[in-house]
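Hey,
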Amino acid sequence: MESPAVDDDGECFSPILLNATSLNVEVYYNKAVNYTLMVTFVSSVAVFIFIFYVDFIFIGLSSLWIP
């Protein structure tokens, strides 16, 4: 007795049919590129702010310290 999930070809799974015209690949690609650029810019700004903050804390306060 054969399993009902097995086709006549012997394949266990039926092929997935996808209508490619329903996917807006260009729109999703542009959104992904824009998101990547935004995250890169924000991360770079955060790193520079952190560097200036650390520079101010360790060098700025050391000039006020009188031994």
